[in-house]
Amino acid sequence: HCKALLLKSRCIENQIKIHELLIAYLFQSGKFPEALEHVRSVLDTLGFPLPTSVDTETVRTVLEAMRNAASGFTPEQMHAFPLMTEEVPKQAMKIMGSVPILLTFSSPTFAAMIACQMAQLSIQHGLCAESAVAFGNLGFAINSVLQDFNCGYDMCNLGLAIFQRFKSNTLILKTYVPIFGFGRGWKVSYSF
Known about the structure:
The chain is an all-alpha fold. The protein has helices at about 1-10, 10-30, 30-45, 55-70, 75-80, 85-95, 105, 110-125, 130-145, 150-165, 170-185.
C-alpha cells in the first residue's frame, strides 16, 4: 500500500512520512536488511548516501573526525545554533531519525555511521528536532567504539540541550535512551 501512496503523493513531506511508516513497518516485522536497504535508497535519492557496508576501522576514523568537529560546541551554543532551513537535509534527518534504537545493537557500525551523518548535517545545515537524536547516538557511539567517555558525555549533553530546545514529544525515547541509558551513565550516577 505504501508504494501506491508514494505514487499519488505530491509533496516531499508526505512522501517522507510514507517512507518513515514503511521503514518502521519493515523494522517491526523483523525485515532488518530490507529496512536498511530502504533507508539507503531514500537517502541516496535525497543526495545523502550511506555506505552499504562499513568495517570497524572506518567507523573509528569517522567517529574520530566527528569527535574533533563537534567537541568545541557547548550546550549553551546549541540553544542559539542556527536552525536547519533547507528541506532536503531536514527530510534526510527525518529518514535517518526513523531508524530504531534497536539497530544500535544489531548493527552498531551502521548505527554509528547514521549518528555521524546526522551530526554532520546538523553542524553544516543547522539544527532540527532530530539533531537531538543525532548527538545522543553520537555520544553513545563515541563511548562504545572510541571509549572516550568524557567526549561521549559531552555529546550526550549537546543532544539533551537540543532536545530541550525543540521539546519534540515524538523523539523522547529516541533521544533519552542513548543519552541516559548509555551515554551519561558513564559519568553520572542515577538514583531511583
